[in-house]
Amino acid sequence: MTTPSLLRTPLHAAHIAAGARMAPFAGWEMPLHYGSQIDEHHATRKACGLFDVSHMGQVRITGCDALKLVQAIVTRDVAHLGDGQSAYCAMCNRAGGLLDDLIVSRLAMGDYLLVVNAGTYEGDLAQMHAVEREFGPFDARIDGCRDDWAMLAVQGPEAPAVLARVLGGGLDPPAMRMISVEWRGQAFWLSTTGYTGERGAELIAPVEMARDLWDALMAAGARPVGLAARDTLRLEQAFNLSGQDFTAQNHPFEVRLGWVVDLDKPDFCGREALRAIRAGVCPRQQCGLLPEGRRIPRHGARVLHQGKQVGVVTSGGFSPTLGRPIALGLLQSQIVKSEEPLEIDLGRGTTVPAVITPLPFLRAQPL
Amino acid sequence: MQPDTLRYRATHEWIEASGAERRVGISSFAQEQLGDIVFVELPTDLPRDVAAGDEVLVIESCKATSSVYAPLAGRVTGVNQRLADHPERINQDPTGEGWLFTLEVAPGADESELLDAESYRRLCEAEG
Questions:
Q1: Which residues on B lie below 8 Å from A36 (Cβ)?
Q2: Set of chain A residues whose Cβ sits within 8 Å of the Cβ of B65
Q3: Complete domains list, chain A, with CATH
Q4: Minimal CB count within 10 Å: which of A9, A200, A300, A348?
Q5: Where do the H-state alpha helices sit in A48-158?
């Protein structure tokens, strides 16, 4: 199953010790589950899950012109970010195609940390350098530094209590903050972000701290959760998965990311194209789909109206919280408005009726 | 780990080694590969005659959709109705409580393709 060329996180041995089933993901050997992905999903919704997300990519942008460069890279206006504040952002190519979604945090004046997806890390870095050349010159540096950092997500209603047990009390910042925390004499970043819709944080820590932090969080009551449950947790909240729910073939507006496009901020890559797209008609849009029955539509399943294809499922899975299959689809906008009955093609001649449903599938908990 | 009283198909079904009407299920290796099973689409048009290799039912796990095939020619006579509410039994006890259906094996059905426990174990090792 595993290939020697796969990258391993600093927590590889911890996963093996916890009985993980490992699987390749975006070039990394990652824990898929530790026995039951459904149990892990429920543990995160009801208590506290611990995720190794060290495969995520960190990029540091520093210098007098760091803000200007970040502004040229992402579509959202991040000028308002103060020290320790974070924003969910997107980056596009010149055609307005979505290259990735990411979190931008201002660590200090002229010092930004960008956290991007694992599978897009190299491409994102190349894009950032291209933007630097095209929109520059900037007095700023781009440092891809994913090898320096481990990243652990602590998520769930009990996450604040688990974090308090390990790090001491008084650490309960509001959502979308990034603060420096000292633990056993070493500093790391605590970011109140996540991919589950639950309360909690992501810890961005030096590689050598990873195992101790992991063990301490486990001892404090967090339960390890693999990528399989991470996927159903994010799908219930209708969070896009980069490379699956969108690729460079999609623009932000059609995958419900128009809110991170600020056309009136200083120039950024893709602005002209996005302005034209915004002014025109959007032929496709992302929707939630509830298939009838218990068969599960998967990525790539065709969505039909009267036997004709009108869209495609981009993510489909079983929702442990709702006890039923759910799916994200990219559909013709006309069909979405018409509220006509739809079907999903499960392959080999089997179709199931499906209805469009408001998103998210699950209402997010207040962070 | 594979019980000796069972025979296996290379597509990871097991069938009881003897008897006229035999239980069929998926192997422990198969359920492990699939992960959490959340639904079994049990056939309702029974009894149904099948050839070896015909699809009998579909299992949905969180990870994938999988077909289960008839290991031998015969007649599907019944299904494990308890799986309708408890598909997770397949994960918990794949060769026991998690059986899927009963097959009345056709007289003279060719069993030469089936594997014994040891051959099947070697197949899983090669795949695993």
A1: 35-36, 91
A2: 295-296, 298, 346-347
A3: 7-56+147-236 (3.30.1360.120), 283-357 (2.40.30.110)
A4: A348
A5: 66-73, 121-135
Cβ contact, residue pair A296, B60, below 8 Å: yes
Taking CA–CA distances from B38, the nearest residue in chain A reads: A318
Return the pLDDT at A365: 46
Q: What are the chain A neighbours of B62 within 8 Å (beta carbons)? A: 37-38, 228, 232, 317-318
Task: Provide the β-strand partners of residue B59.
Answer: B40, B66
Would you call B69 helix, strand, or coil by DSSP? Answer: strand
What's the pLDDT at B80? 97
| Residues 39-68 (B) with a CB less than 8 A from some CB of A | 39, 41, 58, 60, 62-65
Confidence check: pLDDT of A121 > 60: yes
Pairing between strand B37-41 and B48-50? Answer: unpaired
Contact (CB<8Å) A36/B36: yes
Tell me if residue B17 falls in helix, strand or coil.
coil
Q: Which chain B residues are within 8 Å of A37, Cβ to Cβ?
A: 35-36, 62
- Closest CA relative to residue B34, chosen from A25, A38, A16, A351: A38
Establish if B126 touches chain A: CB-CB under 8 angstroms: no
Q: Considering CB atoms only, which of A1, A37, A295 is closest to B62?
A: A37
Could you give the domains of chain B?
A: 6-106 (2.40.50.100)
Q: Do A346 and B62 touch (CB under 8 A)?
A: no
Q: What ranges make up the beta strands (E) of chain A?
A: 7-8, 21-25, 28-33, 49-52, 57-62, 85-92, 98-108, 111-116, 141-144, 149-155, 178-183, 186-191, 200-206, 223-224, 284-291, 302-305, 308-319, 324-332, 342-347, 350-357
Contact with chain B for residue A165, Cβ under 8 A: no
Query: How far is CA B71 from each of CA A76, A242, A255, B5, B64, rounded to the nearest angstrom?
Result: 57, 41, 45, 15, 21
Task: Give me the interface pTM, i.e. the ipTM.
Answer: 0.89
Whose CA is closest to A317, among A202, A222, A216, A237? A237
Residue A367 has pLDDT above 50, yes or no: no
CB-hemisphere CA count at 13 Å for A39? 10
pLDDT tens per residue, range A260-279: 999 999 999 999 999 999 99
Does B38 lie at the interface with A, CB-CB under 8 angstroms? yes
Q: Is residue A26 pLDDT above 80, yes or no?
A: yes
Residue position matching structure tokens 């699950």: A362
Q: Which residues contact B107 (CB under 8 A, 6 or more apart)?
A: none
